[in-house]
Amino acid sequence: MKKTTTNLAGATPQGGIRFDWSKLSGGDWMLLLSEQPQFADKCRWTKLDYSELVSLLKKQPQFADKCDWSTLDGYWWAELLAIQPQFADECEWSKLDGNAWAKLLSAQPQFADKCDWEKMRGCEWVALLTTQPQFAEKCDWSSTENVRRKDWLNLLEVQPQFADKCDWRKIFDDKCDWRTLEELDDGRIYCKLLRKQPCLADQCKCDWGKLDGGSWSRLLSSQPQFADKCDWSKLNGDDWSDLLQCQPQFAGNCDWTKLHEGGWASLLSTRPEFADKCDWSKLYYDDVAEILVAQPQFADRCNLPALFSALYGEEWAKLLSSQPQFADKCNWKKLKHKDWCELLIAQPQFAGKCPWAKLDHHDWCNLLQAQPQFADKCDWSKLNGEDWATLLSSRPQFADKCGWSKLSLNNWRELLCRQPQFAPM
Q: Which long-range contacts (CB under 8 A, 24 or more apart) does 123-128 make?
């Protein structure tokens, strides 16, 4: 069920704005004061619970006198001190469990002398060592026995020096307890690891035969030195398109017949040098349009009358946004309201072609943020409260057009975070 919000503002008989600060919740006050602390004198602090206060203090530490430190548990102490370490003297360190310590020390390693290392479990050690490897000497590696494959991979991707601590059977052995591991086949695991740390290829005893075409494409895109291990026949059209965009030197290994229409569109948009390999007659009109957006010089390879006749409004908007020189071929009646919005944001010179009445509230909100000169065309009654909050946040000059009674609680809070001058006195 869609949630409803209380209306906080409306047009008074005198045309002013009425607004009831007391209706803001603790969460609203946290979000508002985080951006606009000058409204603190309006706040009923009792509405904020300790989690909301901590979230506020992370951005606005000057409100510390509003916080009852005894209400904070270890999790929230770690959250706060990771951003605002100056409150350490208020902390009851015994409240922090292993997870809280891992979070805190990852951000503020200077608190290591306060840590009860025995609270740290395997997964917490792996999380900590990912960012603070200097604590390895404190680690009881036997506690990492039940660490998940995902966590080991995250660690080794950034700290390969711990590879000798890893029980590789946890990652690759079919006899391990798969219930504790994320579902990745071995080939994808090799790819994920070696893309970041190619130096581990020997240590993990990579079985190259387990990599499928997609894994090979992703791996060679960032680590082309493994090309001599690749079984090129495994790559399909999408794999080749993705790989050649990053590593065009492998074109000699490509079976071009595998590339389908969408693969050609992606490839030629970034690598036009392969145009002669393409059978243009087999491309669909939308794929050709995608290519022309990035590479208009290929227009002479296309059946333009057939292409322009087949394009939908959405495709015309994308094409003309990047290549306005094709405008004389456009059937403007095909463009729907959202297409006009997209086009005019990029190419406002086509305003004379636009049927303004087609634009809905969402279109007007987006268009006026980018092209405010079209305000005289706008039917302001179409905009709802959310639209007004978004529009006035970036274009406050339209305030005199606003139907203030449309703004809900969330709309007001969003607006005041960006434009505090609209706050009623």
A: 123/147, 123/148, 123/151, 124/98, 124/99, 126/151, 126/152, 126/154, 126/155, 127/102, 127/103, 127/151, 128/101, 128/102
Contact 239, 213 (CB under 8 A): yes
Contacts of 202 (CB under 8 A, 6+ apart): none
* Pairwise pLDDT comparison (1 vs 385), residue with the higher score: 385
Query: Is residue 410 exposed (0-12), middle (13-18) or buried (19+ Cβ within 10 Å)?
Result: middle
Q: How far apart are CA 66 and CA 182, in angstroms?
A: 43
Give the pLDDT score at 262: 87
* Residue 2 backbone zone (phi > 0: left; psi -120 to 50: alpha; other: beta): beta
Taking only the tens place, the pLDDT of each residue in 300-354 is 999 999 999 999 999 999 999 999 999 999 999 999 999 999 999 999 999 999 9
Instruction: Give the tokens for residue 347.
Output: 């190419």
Selection from 193, 121, 120, 181 nearest residue 154 by Cα: 193
Number of residues written out for the chain: 425
Helix axes 74-83, 50-59, angle to 10 degrees: 10
Q: Which two tokens stand for residue 168?
A: 């590789």
Looking at residue 176, its pLDDT comes to 43
CA distance 42 to 29: 10
Q: What is the mean pLDDT of residues 204-217?
A: 94
Q: Which residues contact 64 (CB under 8 A, 6 or more apart)?
A: 57, 87
Which tens digits make up the pLDDT trace of 72-104? Answer: 999 999 999 999 999 999 999 999 999 999 999
Pair 243, 235: CB distance under 8 Å: yes
pLDDT in tens, 333-347: 999 999 999 999 999
- Tell me what percent of the residues of the chain surpass a pLDDT of 70: 92
